[in-house]
TrEMBL record, chain A:
It catalyses: glycolate + A = glyoxylate + AH2; (R)-lactate + A = pyruvate + AH2. PANTHER family: GLYCOLATE OXIDASE IRON-SULFUR SUBUNIT (PTHR32479). Coiled coil: none annotated. InterPro entries: 4Fe4S_Fe-S-bd, 4Fe4S_Fe_S_CS, Cys_rich_dom, Glc_ox_4Fe-4S, Helical_ferredxn. Pfam families: CCG, Fer4_8. Its cofactor is [4Fe-4S] cluster. It comes from the Bacteria. Component of a complex that catalyzes the oxidation of glycolate to glyoxylate. This is Glycolate oxidase iron-sulfur subunit. One of its GO terms (molecular function) is 4 iron, 4 sulfur cluster binding. Residues 16-46, 69-100 form the 4Fe-4S ferredoxin-type domain. Its EC number is 1.1.99.14.
From TrEMBL, chain B:
Gene3D superfamilies: 3.30.465.10, 3.30.70.2740, Vanillyl-alcohol Oxidase, Chain A, domain 4. Residues 37-216 form the FAD-binding PCMH-type domain. The keyword Oxidoreductase applies. This is Glycolate oxidase. One of its GO terms (molecular function) is FAD binding. Belongs to the FAD-binding oxidoreductase/transferase type 4 family. InterPro entries: FAD-bd_oxidored_4_C (IPR004113), FAD-bd_PCMH (IPR016166), FAD-bd_PCMH-like_sf (IPR036318), FAD-bd_PCMH_sub2 (IPR016169), FAD-linked_Oxase-like_C (IPR016164), FAD-linked_OxidoTrans_Type4 (IPR051914), GlcD (IPR004490), Oxid_FAD_bind_N (IPR006094). The lineage of its organism: Bacteria, Bacillati, Bacillota, Bacilli, Bacillales. It comes from Thermolongibacillus altinsuensis. One of its GO terms (cellular component) is glycolate oxidase complex.
């Protein structure tokens, strides 16, 4: 519940802080409606559409309505997938409006004590500290390896959790050990001639829970002729904070990252998680009002590039890779597509692999419902969106679902599990898939050489 | 206001999940795509079938509650803005394609069907539903019928009106009537079907429609003609028609429009020319080739600096999609975007384009023009800022003069967007006092309590007519 006083304060801050030009820029044509997953899944409710949410924000600014529970619900229901932005002819930056509105509400609303503690723990205590992320992952590793996991599963302890969370436990990857996580490279030489010097943004979750994917990313970069710098001073990108109304924390993380990367003299800063990349690429917006940081942020964002984009630039798709025959489909990472504008490159890379029959699923560009922590805080809508997604996956008869962001990857795995498809279908990050193809191709070449010499 | 007693009655009809009177829920239906109009309804109701619509209407009639049927709210005349409050009726449950009749070439639909979904469903069967308003990805058939929407294919294939064969309508007293049917010929009584098409929800609630389909044209070609001179482009339009060619599409975009559309679509539209024509022809292969060649020649004779034929369907589709985004893309320029759709006989299109530019200069406002030049339907659009009162006044004056000029050239104040609230003060300019009286008599007969979308079409007072000076 928001108190009357809180509402007044929220309303006042809406008036002070919301970008009125941006709000007015929406001319309410409705071109965004057919692309909005929550509009569709809510049975075409205008208040769950981008146009409706912008109207609500504007109405709060205009004093036409109060920021009551229904307004909040509408804003919370938004996935933040930003599919409405590329289709908006007027170019409204909806994501920025949403972020600001959520920040105002979060900062002026007193959450219940336990929510406050959890938020504080997660946002301040955990994500900005890579050593703690490692610790937590190591605990998970202990759980997975010690036999505790099988015991817990046997005893059905997880049944006390909501079903989707219990399933989530099943699909978590096998995580690396404490030692592995603490033994990370800071510099890697290219294989063959050096063509580019790049920095690698490792990410907090990617460098712990998904460390294998990070290793694969670096391996691909080396193969593509990149010298890689991995500055140890980097930290969490702050996306989770920014999307959850903790903008100030996000700004602090942004500054730390800019500092870590700006002196490296690299061509690009490479990311392999659409969610992180999209947030990094908007640091210039996040810090635009900070005279000390605005220019530095601009220089930083100009260098952000997704792994698939640089691989295509380095003509990795012409390497002639091959894999055993399989049907593959690709689930866009919303932020990679809608914010980083990278949608063609992953497809090109997949299509270039011999043996891969690439089948585009219907609405591949529609969010899978993962959306950061959305699948945890809005489970009903998230699962409804996932069910639609899995229907489309099934129609392609794909045995491999490729994606480009850890959240999407877990959600796809969750979908496979929910549908009982885990015997025939797998979900995999694009870099892991590409490395698999590299290895398979090498193996093939070796076999051929052996045949010839033998 | 809706009393609790009435609310309970309404909930009894549709169920609590289909009755929303929350502040946020009402706000989300307080507007449509028309700038500067907003008004909260008292409740938003989603009926599940015709019977429920009828029962709701009966209650509204008894208690004199305004009732506004709304599709996706993409109209541009404030036709679905509930300016007198009351109930906004939405058709999210009534969105089925009921039948595609391949023997009679008709399709029967509920009002909530999205236009593009209908078009695609019939195209799968090799049939063609031509009306294609720019908002077709979003708009509903119910909305199209109520607004008598046009589109890019209007000049060759006509508008929504030309495809509505039969309707099911709930009248203001709750009666359910059926008009027309799957009949090519039917003169049994007044043509009520046509009366309801374009009636903007002021006469009744359309709950079902039977639409005419035609066979899919065999082929289609698309080209772009570029001009250094606005009027040369406009003259080409008249010349094409005068040469007895009716293209499927003949669209006009001026330079400022091209710039914003390209900024959005990024498909390589020329932004360094003064105007372009987007021309399409469909039909049998030989006819299409012949017409395209002839039109290319005409454009060149009218000083087109270049004529380019689209190389693939993707390229052609990108051009059409870009054109459809023109209005919203213009919203990039300034916070408020006001557009009109003055329409003139197509022989007068060059004069109208010239007049629009002169009027813009006279009032010192920026007016970008695009539109369906081939059917004389232009969309002069003014990027402005609603907060700048002085400029807004000049914009209003400029548009008044554009209306007057259009009428003087034998045209109309609105070609396809409808009257709604926005153009109601000007309707008399086109119809005369007697014309208005005749229409009001119809309204009075069918909706004596004025509950059906009140405040639309008929204005409380008519604008003083401006005298066009040269």
């Amino acid at each position: 519940m928001t108190t009357v006083k809180e509402r007044e304060k929220i309303q006042q801050q809406f008036q002070e802080r919301m970008n009125e030009d941006e709000l007015l820029n929406c001319m309410r044509c409705g071109f965004c409606l057919p692309t909005c997953p929550t509009y569709i899944e809510s049975g075409f409710q205008e208040s769950h559409s981008p146009r409706g949410r912008i109207a609500l924000m504007k109405a709060v600014v205009d004093g036409l309505i109060e920021p009551d529970e229904d307004v909040e619900r509408s804003l919370n229901m938004c996935l933040g997938c930003r599919a409405c932005e590329p289709v908006c002819p007027s170019g409204v930056r909806y994501g920025h409006l949403l972020e600001e509105a959520r920040d105002i509400i979060a900062q002026n609303k007193k959450h219940p004590l336990f929510v406050r503690i959890i938020r504080k723990m997660v946002f301040n205590g955990l994500f900005p500290h890579q050593n703690r992320m490692r610790m937590l992952t190591a605990l998970l590793g202990f759980y997975q390896r010690s036999g505790l996991q099988s015991l817990v599963r046997r005893l059905g302890i997880l049944n006390i959790l909501p079903k989707h969370l219990a399933t989530m436990e099943k699909v978590l990857p096998n995580v690396p050990t404490w030692k592995e996580m603490n033994d990370r490279p800071q510099h890697l030489a290219p294989e063959g001639t050096k063509k580019r010097r790049v920095a690698f943004f490792t990410g907090c979750l990617m460098d712990t829970m998904f460390m294998e994917t990070n290793d694969a990313t670096m391996k691909l970069l080396q193969l593509a002729g990149c010298e890689i710098v991995i500055p140890p001073g980097q930290t969490c990108c702050g996306a989770l904070h920014g999307h959850s109304g903790e903008k100030n924390d996000a700004k602090e993380l942004a500054k730390r990252n800019i500092e870590a990367f700006e002196q490296l003299n690299v061509d690009y800063i490479i990311t392999n998680a659409g969610g992180c990349g999209a947030f990094l690429i908007e640091y210039d917006h996040l810090l635009k009002d900070d005279p000390h940081w605005a220019e530095r942020a601009k220089a930083f964002t100009a260098k952000i590039k997704d792994i698939s984009a640089i691989l295509v630039e380095m003509e990795f798709h012409k390497k002639g890779l091959s894999l055993p025959e399989q049907i593959v489909t690709y689930q866009d990472s919303c932020h990679l597509r809608n914010v980083m504008k990278t949608a063609h490159e992953p497809r090109l890379l997949l299509q270039s692999i011999e043996g891969v029959e690439f089948r585009e699923m219907k609405d591949a560009d529609r969010c899978c419902g993962s959306a950061g922590i959305y699948n945890i805080v809005q489970p009903d809508m998230s699962m409804q969106i996932l069910d639609y997604k899995m229907e489309q996956v099934k129609k392609t008869k794909a045995t491999t679902i490729v994606t480009a962001n850890p959240g999407c990857l877990l959600q796809m795995k969750l979908g496979i599990e929910r549908e009982g498809l885990s015997e025939h279908v797998r979900a995999v990050h694009i870099v892991d898939f590409l490395l698999e193809a590299v290895k398979a191709s090498q193996q093939q070449t070796n076999n051929q050489i052996q045949k010839k010499t033998g | 206001m809706i009393s609790n007693e009435i609310k309970q009655k309404l909930i009894q009809i549709v169920g609590p999940e289909n009755y929303d009177d929350s502040k946020a829920g009402r706000l989300a239906y307080s507007y449509d795509a028309t700038p500067q109009f907003q008004s909260l309804p008292d409740a938003v109701i989603a009926p599940r079938n015709t019977k429920e619509v009828s029962e709701i209407v009966k209650i509204c009639n008894e208690y004199r509650i305004p009732i506004v049927p709304r599709g996706s709210g993409t109209n541009l005349c404030a036709g679905t803005c509930p300016i007198e409050g009351g109930i906004v009726l939405i058709f999210k449950h009534m969105n089925k394609i009921l039948e595609i009749d391949e023997e009679n070439l008709t399709v029967t639909v509920q009002p909530g069907v999205i236009t593009l979904d209908l078009i695609q469903a019939v195209e799968e069967k090799g049939l063609f539903y031509p009306p294609d308003p720019s908002s077709m990805k979003i708009s509903t058939i119910g909305g199209n019928i109520n607004e008598n929407s046009g589109g890019l294919r209007g000049l060759k294939y006509g508008v929504t009106r030309d495809y509505v064969m039969g309707l099911e309508v709930v009248l203001a007293n709750g009666d359910i009537i059926r008009t027309g049917g799957k009949l090519a010929k039917d003169v049994a009584g007044y043509d009520l079907t046509r009366l309801f098409v374009g009636s903007e929800g002021t006469l009744g609630i359309i709950t079902e429609a039977t639409l005419k389909l035609i066979p899919m044209p065999e082929t289609k070609k698309t080209m772009l003609a570029l001009y250094e001179d606005l009027e040369a482009a406009a003259r080409s339009v008249s010349a094409i028609i005068a040469n007895k060619i009716i293209p499927a599409t003949l669209e006009f975009l001026d330079q400022p429009t091209l710039e914003v559309v390209e900024a959005y679509a990024q498909i390589g539209l020329p932004t360094d020319v003064k105007a372009v024509l987007l021309i399409e022809q469909d039909g049998p292969k030989e006819v299409v080739e012949r017409d395209m060649k002839k039109m290319e020649q005409i454009c060149r004779e009218q000083q087109a600096i270049s004529v380019q034929v689209a190389r693939s369907e993707e390229e052609a589709n990108a051009l059409r999609t870009a054109r459809r985004s023109a209005l919203s893309a213009l919203a990039r320029l300034k916070p408020t975007t006001i557009l009109e759709d003055a329409t003139v006989p197509r022989s007068e299109i060059a004069k109208m384009v010239k007049a629009i530019n002169e009027i813009a200069q006279k009032y010192n406002v920026k007016i970008c023009t695009f539109g369906h030049a081939g059917d004389g339907n232009l969309h002069p659009t003014c990027p402005t800022d609603a907060r700048d009162r002085d400029e807004l006044e000049r914009v209003e004056k400029a548009f008044e003069e554009i209306f007057a000029k259009a009428i003087e050239l034998g045209g109309t104040i609105t070609g396809e967007h409808g009257v709604g609230v926005m153009k109601a003060p000007y309707l008399e300019w086109k119809l005369g006092a007697e014309g208005i009286a005749a229409m009001k008599a119809i309204k009075q007969a069918l909706d004596p309590n004025n509950i059906m979308n009140p405040g639309k079409v008929f204005a409380k007072s008519t604008r003083k007519r401006v005298v066009v000076t040269r």
